[in-house]
UniProtKB/TrEMBL annotation:
Residues 436-529 form the Peptidase S33 tripeptidyl aminopeptidase-like C-terminal domain. Residues 29-48 are annotated as: Disordered. Residues 127-287 form the AB hydrolase-1 domain. This is Putative hydrolase. It comes from Streptomyces formicae. Residues 1-21 form the signal peptide. GO terms for molecular function: hydrolase activity.
């Protein structure tokens, strides 16, 4: 995603470099089929207890009533922006509030308006799981209209086990899971062993503590933050994984929510392995889109004169890398790691030119020419290959990603299950099938989820923004959330992008979010934004 304070916002879903993530092209502020808004209505909740019962667990009062001491954030850029940070103490295990605790770091940009203009707080999550959240208020504030900025204190948080919030560190020295399983048995076995080894490393260091890094506990943390801030209610802005976290919070604490925006949502029923498998076809489609874009520009990129020829060029590059890895920037890309780079580059359709340039760069490197990676590619390679404590810290972020996913969900622990899934997918997903069906470390996680997953089923008023070409949380995934959050209204953006509001210059979607946050009124009907073909043409 495009909101991150590190090289990668999260290994699983967001995968965007802080230094160079581009957003989708600007859109016309008009909308096709838009209806006038209707006032938000009273809602009912069908599953979870109310917040008063949730918060009444013996011993939690001291967490809800703690005093927060605000000071400059550690990150100099955040401190310079006026963002202030504070520590919040939460129990490791909410069922044992007298037991061990965790120290979480939150950030705040105060509302810009007078007290009479202030509505309250809006809490945020940038995605992941494993996305650094302290910088999210700055990015959200940048897209708010002055009237909305005047109304809300914007709150960010590094979730438990991440960044400045009692971070986990399993000693992982590489990103094992997000690797293609290649073309032969040796490559598959190597990837499967890495996944199992990562699970063992985390288990050996943290044992049964790992069961407490679940989304349900993070939702409880969110509510403690609300209480510690002295707010009766909170609004929510979440993108990618943050949509799932927001939906879980809405289900667990329905009485504490004001306005909810879910940007680039996932299907809560598919959260986990199914969600990652759904990315395979979406990324193959993105490659086809790039091929159609690059074919008439063969004189520039020399990838092929037809879409089929461009695709064949990319597929051939991946196949040959299995025998002869591509050396670039001091790193070696092979059948296991090259799909990761292509996966990242396919996120946004304004990046088509960069995708084509990078493939050309790889072809030149393969031919023995001296090449230098772009700044963005160099950052991605650094995040992939240099994950030690003195490098990017991605190894620690990856540990947090695994801790949350594996505390929430289970996965097959039989390597053969994944091998069969890969072979089944390979025919239609030759580049990304071995990548998105690779063995998941949760399959070898000894600590199983301590609570069942939260069933999302309510009619809370929600504004949902979804891009049709999203390769991370696909449009079909978003429709699953739309169905589960029955009171939601869906604004569709006809582009390939992820994290629309913070990462995409889309005036139609921006207006939808800002209008809703300001008035609390949802559109009467779902609608699709008009696409402005006159802007952002380089990558389209």
């Amino acid at each position: 995603m495009k909101t991150t304070t590190g090289p990668l916002s999260a290994i699983g879903l967001t995968l965007a470099l802080a230094a160079g993530a581009a957003g989708c092209a600007a859109q016309d502020s008009s909308s096709a089929g838009a209806e006038k808004p209707a006032s938000a209505r009273e809602t009912t909740v069908t599953q979870e207890t109310t917040v008063t019962r949730e918060a009444a667990t013996k011993g939690l009062d001291r967490f809800y009533r703690q005093r927060l001491d605000w000071g400059p954030c550690k990150d100099p850029a955040l401190a310079e922006s006026g963002t202030r940070c504070a520590k919040v103490i939460v129990p490791l295990d909410y069922a044992a509030p007298k037991g061990p605790t965790l120290s979480l770091t939150i950030s705040r940009l105060k509302a810009t308006g007078a007290k009479s203009e202030r509505r309250g707080i809006i809490q945020t999550n940038p995605g992941g799981p494993g996305g650094h959240g302290l910088g999210m208020p700055v990015q959200l504030r940048a897209k708010m209209t002055p009237e909305v900025a005047a109304a809300y204190d914007v709150i960010g948080m590094d979730t438990r086990g991440l960044g400045e919030s009692s971070p986990l560190d399993c000693g992982l020295d590489s990103i094992s899971w997000f690797r293609g399983a290649g073309f032969d048995r040796a490559s598959f076995d190597r990837v499967a062993k890495k996944s199992a080894d990562d699970a063992r490393k985390c288990e050996a260091k943290y044992g049964d503590r790992l069961a407490h890094y679940s989304t349900r506990n993070i939702a409880r943390d969110v509510d403690v933050v609300r209480g510690a801030l002295g707010e009766r209610r909170t609004s929510w802005f979440g993108q990618s994984y943050g949509t799932y976290l927001g939906a879980v919070y809405a289900q667990m604490f329905p009485g504490r929510l004001d306005r909810i925006v879910l940007d680039s949502a996932m299907n809560p029923r598919d959260y986990g392995l199914k969600m990652f498998q759904a990315m395979g076809p979406a990324n193959e489609k993105a490659l086809d889109d790039v091929a159609r874009w690059a074919a008439p520009r063969d004189a520039t990129y020399r990838l092929g004169k037809t879409p089929a020829a461009v695709r064949a060029t990319v597929e051939g590059l991946v196949r040959r890398s299995a025998q002869r890895p591509i050396e670039i920037g001091g790193d070696r890309l092979d059948q296991e790691t090259l799909p990761f780079v292509l996966y990242f580059l396919g996120t946004d359709d304004v990046d088509n030119a960069e995708y084509a340039r990078t493939v050309r760069l790889f072809l030149d490197a393969e031919a023995g020419k001296a090449v230098e990676p772009s700044e963005r590619l160099a950052g991605l390679l650094g995040a992939m290959f240099r994950t030690g404590p003195d490098q990017t810290g991605t190894g620690r972020d990856y540990a947090n990603t695994l801790a949350i996913l594996c505390a929430d969900t289970t996965a097959p622990g039989d390597a053969e299950w994944y091998r069969k899934a890969i072979e089944k997918a390979r025919a239609k997903q030759p580049v990304f099938g071995p990548f998105h069906n690779a063995p998941m470390p949760c399959g070898w996680w000894k600590q199983k989820p301590s609570e069942p997953p939260t069933k999302i089923d309510n009619d809370r008023p929600v504004l949902q923004i979804q891009a049709t070409g999203d390769t991370r949380t696909t449009y079909e995934q978003g429709l699953g959330m739309h169905k589960a959050m029955r009171g939601s209204k869906l604004v569709t953006v006809p582009v390939r992008t992820h994290a629309v509001y913070t990462g995409c210059a889309n005036a139609c979607a921006d207006k939808a979010v800002n209008d809703y946050l300001l008035t609390g009124e949802l559109p009467r009907e779902d609608y699709t934004c008009a696409r402005d073909e006159g802007k952002g043409k380089e990558g389209r």
